[in-house]
Design goal:
globular; alpha+beta; three-stranded antiparallel beta sheet; 14 strands; 22% helix; 7 helices
């Protein structure tokens, strides 16, 4: 399988990639490549008010009620897991209408692939540590997530936590069916490496999909509602990575356009999906690390990134 070319991401003769300016502000690129994330203002007070009003009109199938965010008795909710296709389409369109132009202004070379609403109930909602799934063929090209809460987030309601500088240094494909390289030291990650990022309503955290992140229980009295928006380069063909069920040393790649993330269910990312074009296989580079190996990589993070990217 030939490696695709993404506009602006040029490979040098030595194999390293020279990234283009990704953000509208060059200083954001500097921070993004150093830390793996940036925080930006996204929506005005008026735009946030309109978003809340339109959000309340959505009709998910499960027991979560967007009209009543003062009610703490909601269940964990994720758009992708809701069986109502029409609701998933309405939710996705809400994100594109309410935030599409604003995100494009910040990330002009990227487009929205898909989006989700995550609702963390009062008193619960602890997420597992994870990286986001790869959505394009060349995993050396950054894809990013825009994380935009409907209310201020902080320690009490379980804001997102990230490992600053831990992006693009591990040869790991974090597909839904993958083993996780950090399984042996999750406690140490939480206690030492994962740092909370407080994000205000109207702001967005934009982070590299390879960045380890996590969030704790929502200890407030109200649900915590967040929009999670997957961004890919404008010209990227999007794919689904599935570890081959017969040969764990290989990944299968399937063509998965924007409609896939709306029309297919969770089971489709766990096995061979029907109706998608098979694109071939890729070797599985994943390996378990010890805490000592992880720590050594973190100590050399800048050097590891500069071995793959021209960042000067």
């Amino acid at each position: 399988m030939s490696t695709p070319v993404y506009e602006g991401f040029e490979r040098q003769a030595d194999g390293r990639i020279r990234p283009p300016q990704m953000f509208n502000d060059e200083s954001l690129d500097v921070a993004f490549w150093a830390d793996g994330f940036v925080k930006v203002p996204l929506l005005s007070v008026e735009e946030m008010s309109s978003l809340r009003e339109n959000f309340a009109e959505l009709t998910p199938t499960d027991s979560f009620d967007p009209r009543n965010l003062e009610n703490p008795r909601c269940e964990y909710h994720c758009t992708f897991l809701d069986p109502n296709l029409e609701y998933r389409k309405q939710s996705d369109q809400l994100v594109r209408t309410a935030m599409g132009e604003q995100i494009k202004a910040v990330l002009p070379g990227y487009r929205i692939l898909t989006s989700n609403v995550y609702v963390k109930p009062a008193g619960t909602g602890r997420f597992e540590i994870h990286q986001n799934w790869p959505t394009i063929e060349d995993i050396d090209i950054p894809t990013v997530t825009v994380w935009a809460p409907l209310q201020d987030t902080g320690f009490k309601n379980g804001t997102i936590r990230v490992v600053p500088g831990g992006h693009r240094i591990f040869p790991d494909i974090a597909a839904a069916t993958s083993d996780r390289f950090f399984d042996d030291f999750e406690t140490e990650l939480i206690e030492t490496y994962l740092e909370p990022v407080n994000v205000a309503a109207g702001e967005a955290l934009i982070f590299d999909d390879s960045l380890l992140h996590w969030s704790s229980d929502n200890l407030s009295e109200n649900p915590r509602v967040t929009f999670q928006i997957e961004m890919v380069p404008q010209d990227a063909q999007t794919v689904l990575w599935i570890r081959n069920p017969d040969d764990p040393t290989q990944f299968d790649l399937w063509e998965a356009a924007t409609g896939f993330w709306l029309e297919y269910d969770m089971e489709s990312v766990l096995g061979r999906p029907e109706g998608l074009k098979f694109l071939g296989t890729r070797p599985n580079p994943n390996q378990h690390l010890s805490l000592e190996e992880f720590d050594a990589c973190m100590q050399r993070a800048d050097d590891i990134r500069r071995a793959k990217y021209v960042l000067d």
